[in-house]
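dumping this here so i dont lose it
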């Protein structure tokens, strides 16, 4: 049986989802906010992976996941989403 999802992808989505949920717990008010923050967290974490993967810079990695850099970009995107309130 082939592995459909790589462990690093699952870990990244779980970590980004946790960040989105924590952000919603602190600043969110509605279900719409939860969806917005979850999407922003997923996009931000993915952007952090892509940008710092392209730059070849990493502070702390768990396998191929750049945890510190992706977390910073993820939280930045969450605050931008809150500020813009798309």
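and the seq i came up w/
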């Amino acid at each position: 049986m082939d592995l459909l999802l790589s462990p690093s992808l699952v870990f990244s989505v779980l970590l980004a989802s946790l960040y989105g949920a924590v952000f919603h717990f602190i600043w969110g008010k509605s279900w719409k906010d939860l969806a917005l923050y979850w999407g922003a967290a997923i996009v931000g974490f993915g952007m952090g992976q892509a940008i710092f993967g392209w730059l070849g810079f990493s502070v702390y990695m768990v396998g191929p996941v750049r945890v510190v850099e992706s977390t910073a970009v993820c939280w930045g995107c969450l605050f931008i989403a809150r500020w813009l309130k798309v």
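The mean pLDDT is 91.
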